[in-house]
Design goal:
Length: 337
């Protein structure tokens, strides 16, 4: 964004995760309920999970509502002085769908309601968008109606430049996209029109040691193909598994299957026409995780699996440098031709 323009925090669930981006603090009324793709086995949740891997609905709160309707709200509050680009949003987009009854959605800031729109009943996925002055620190989205639509995401972004959406699907090994309803996924992709999808999965597979990861290669291949099918114009980059250690005879060593999983991911990416970036190699390869954990300050946590914020930033810089190096080579070739 500092190079090409753009800003904002991108897509957020209506119900915030325990970890929130440092630039914006999100709070909600207590009657929101989030359903994720991980809830499929419980039944009765359908398959319309969209690109975020889940949706939110508000439950009946009409006892607390003066108008006799169910009502729910979401607040977004700019915080701190860091991450200035993330706080630099001027658009608020709500992605919703499958509304059985009309719902009133209003946008408020600076102490008053600025705009309100009726969301008509729909059996597909729609979006509504408002412009917001950059000087506004806090906004509220208020929903009022007899029955909640599925709220897939709220995006705080700029109208131009690069918008980065960080979609965390906790506990996923990266094989959930084909479990979502294809029509819903395609519709959201059409509304968002992403040009690049970066996938990063793998550590949840590592503890399951088997002789062959051909099955996993095929699963990852199917995910990339599915994403490209619903959005043929999109490019995909798969970031490979990072190093991960376990204790053997008192010493932390890489799991013996890391390189097999990495190779399966790379093969899947190349088969599907995607690019691959080797995070394991970038870290230093076999048995590199302890060096990240014991660095001062620490670059990875004591579980020898996850990066600290500082370590994540270093990996991000390494990836960005690789990406921009190839981008610059590509643009130079285009100019020569």
């Amino acid at each position: 964004q500092s190079r090409f323009g753009g800003g904002g925090v991108g897509l957020l669930n209506a119900v915030p995760h325990s970890y929130q981006p440092g630039a914006v603090y999100q709070s909600t009324s207590s009657n929101w309920h989030y359903t994720s793709i991980a809830d499929l086995g419980r039944g009765g949740v359908g398959h319309r999970f969209g690109v975020m891997g889940g949706y939110s609905v508000f439950k009946d709160s009409r006892r607390a509502s003066k108008g006799g309707f169910a009502e729910a709200w979401i607040d977004f509050d700019k915080r701190g002085s860091h991450y200035s680009l993330a706080r630099n949003y001027s658009n608020c987009k709500v992605i919703y769908g499958h509304a059985v009854e009309p719902v009133m959605l209003s946008l408020s800031y600076s102490g008053s309601t600025q705009d309100a729109e009726f969301l008509s009943p729909t059996n597909t996925i729609e979006s509504i968008e408002w412009s917001i002055p950059k000087s506004v620190k806090k906004i509220r989205l208020n929903f009022k109606g007899d029955e909640s639509p599925m709220v897939y995401a709220v995006s705080l972004e700029t109208p131009k430049g690069i918008v980065v959406d960080n979609i965390a699907i906790r506990g996923s090994s990266g094989v959930d996209f084909t479990r979502s309803d294809n029509a819903s996924l395609k519709r959201i992709m059409g509304l968002m029109r992403p040009r690049l999808i970066i996938l990063q999965f793998g550590v949840n597979i590592v503890p399951h040691i088997v002789k062959s990861y051909a099955y996993y290669e095929n699963q990852i291949y199917q995910q990339i193909v599915a994403l490209k099918k619903v959005n043929p114009e999109v490019s995909v980059i798969l970031i490979g598994v990072s190093d991960m250690s376990r204790k053997v005879n008192g010493q932390f060593e890489s799991y013996p299957n890391i390189e097999m999983i990495r190779d399966a991911q790379r093969s899947a990416a190349l088969r599907a026409g995607a690019a691959f970036w080797d995070c394991y190699r970038a870290m230093g390869g076999k048995n590199s995780m302890p060096a990240w954990v014991y660095a001062s300050p620490s670059l990875a946590s004591k579980d020898f699996v996850h990066f600290t914020l500082r370590g994540s930033n270093i990996i991000a810089e390494m990836f960005y440098s690789s990406l921009m190096e190839l981008y610059d080579e590509y643009t130079e070739m285009q100019l020569e031709n």
